[in-house]
Amino acid sequence: MIEEAAKIIAHSRFLIAFTGAGVSAESGIPTFRGRGGLWENYRIEEVATPEAFRRDPNLVWAFYKMRMKIMKDAKPNNAHLVLAELEKMGILRAVITQNIDNLHKEAGNQHIVELHGNIHRVKCTRCDYMENLLESGKLEDFLKEKNLPKCPECASLLRPDVVWFGEPLPQEALQKAFKLAEGADVCLVIGTSAQVFPAAYVPYIVKDNGGSVIEVNTKESGITPIVDVFLRGKAGEVMQSLLVKVKRCLENKKC
Ligand code: OAD
After folding, report:
1. Pocket test for ligand 1, best of 192, 197, 201, 214 (most atoms within 8 A of CB)
2. What is the DSSP string of 5-54?
């Protein structure tokens, strides 16, 4: 199967990747669903909805600060690094991610569409203020602060710049993702349960347009019934082997 996937990728005209929490699992970031997933210990309606934030901003901020701490210390794993290399090789055109952990950027990918926001950004609940705490160098101080974060411009409450359940996705990012999917002939789906829409439409769009879908996952997901090749295993390990085969395939024109 891995040879088949390598062949499809090596012959692709416009390859995109669609990633979920599983791509970052080997970087020590918990996934959401399944055993040990975040939604086993936290209730979505208590920590990840606009209503939850209105009801108890302290609880929601505690949940996000806990995740900010994990994500700021996490390093890209081999799956992220292989995707960055595939982009440098001119094969991979874009990574569309549901993740908020910034690891594709840290790995070196330049063309990234973040569908669910970014953990390092905060935005005002009232005005247009937005800040990337990593870039402004204020992340450590922000994490130490015990009081709720306030907007430096209008003093209203700040919130994480992530998408909560019941909220629309950032329209520009979503349109960009769908346009990339419409132009793609191959979609590499890595580490997602493909259960959360509209993000999960991405591989279906590629398939509907006659393209191929390759999936890398430790187990079957919502998208598995329509994929052309399913590669079972940990993303970091599978992606490394896949890269070796793609390179071999490109060198040996007969593949
Ligand atoms: P999920 O937690 O739903 O799914 C993670 C997927 O990764 C599962 O299919 C696992 O089998 C797979 N997986 C786990 N470890 C892996 C590994 N080492 N290598 C490869 N695959 C592995 O996460 P997402 O699909 O990303 O949304 O979830 C989608 C959205 O639901 C998230 O963006 C988040 C969540 O609630 C919001 O918060 C809006």
Report:
1. 192
2. HHHHHHT-SSEEEEE-GGGGGGGT---SSSTT-HHHHS-HHHHSSHHHHH
Which residue is catalytic, options 80, 104, 116, 120?
116
Task: Please give the angle made by the CA atoms of 13, 91 and 189, to the nearest 5 degrees.
Answer: 85
171-183 and 201-208 helices cross at what angle (nearest 10)? 30
> Ligand 1 center to residue 115 CA distance, Å?
14
- Is 116 a residue of the active site? yes
Q: Going residue by residue through the chain (255 aa), what tens digit of pLDDT does each one get?
A: 999 999 999 999 999 999 999 999 999 999 999 888 999 999 999 999 999 999 999 999 999 999 999 999 999 999 999 999 999 999 999 999 999 999 999 999 999 999 999 999 999 999 999 999 999 999 999 999 999 999 999 999 999 999 999 999 999 999 999 999 999 999 999 999 999 999 999 999 999 999 999 999 999 999 999 999 999 999 999 999 999 999 999 998 778
Question: Is the Cβ atom of 49 under 6 angstroms away from ligand 1?
Answer: no
Question: Rounded to two decimals, what is the model's pTM?
Answer: 0.97
